[in-house]
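We treat protein structure as text, and this decision shapes the records that our systems exchange. Such a record has a labelled line for the sequence and another for the backbone structure tokens. The record that follows is passed on verbatim for readers who wish to inspect the format:
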Amino acid sequence: MPPARARTKKVPLSSTASESRRGFFPFFQYASVVGVHVILVGFTALYLPQSTRLFGPLPVRKTDRPQSEFMEALTARPVVTAAWTLAGLCVLQVWWGTWVRKWYFEQNAHGTSEEIKITRANVKGVWFARLRATVGFALLATAVTHIVIVLFGAPLLSHHLQTGLLAATVAILTAFVPAFVFGYPTLASDTPALVNRLNWIRLFAELSPRNPVERIVVFPAVGTVVGAWIGAFPIPLDWDRPWQAWPLTPLYGSLTGYIIASLAALAVNSLKWLAQEQLRSVQPSTKYKTS
């Protein structure tokens, strides 16, 4: 007797709408926005301090190492340069943090479409409260960063404003976006606070990001710290260049590290996304199965 032919029947999709959304990441939107973001960071660092010229002529300095007018605007008043840069980053990081927070929500959203819409509306409704809490955390991070910079050799009895502006810049590049996206860590004993605290430890102590949003946050933070540290190397050298004034080199080192690390996060996320798409394309369809 010939064997019975395998019957093919249509089986409902193996995942519900909510399961298919879980882990969703808008890669193309991210790639376009991060490109704009790094360009604006570079513009903030190099061109926003040029606005100093609008408020009067630059001080005339006698030096045997003349600079271009572009560099002179950046180095003539280091405090003003750092202040302009910080002001631009404050606005820019709020905009960038809003995007990353949106992607974090989309990546973790679950439930029916109506439930997701309600949750999304609730998340948008607490935007200002989250911003206010994040600003407070950034100020605390600035104070801690100031102490760390002094311990690493910054002037203790002078240049307080310069060190404070550098500390604020490093804090807003490293701590603002993570606190805005995940919520700042607390010492509370409830379960959400414990989970959030362990998440921060995993990300910034173990340096173990597991998904695109976490890489978007961790890579630039690490790059900022490394860039600021490397940027401090030229200061003690006896080159007698105007750009060696405190805190220009660690300031621009931190910005350079942030930009490079942001592009590195884009590269890693791109490779992983392409790999996932390749795996998805070669996997057999689960829409029909043989029984």
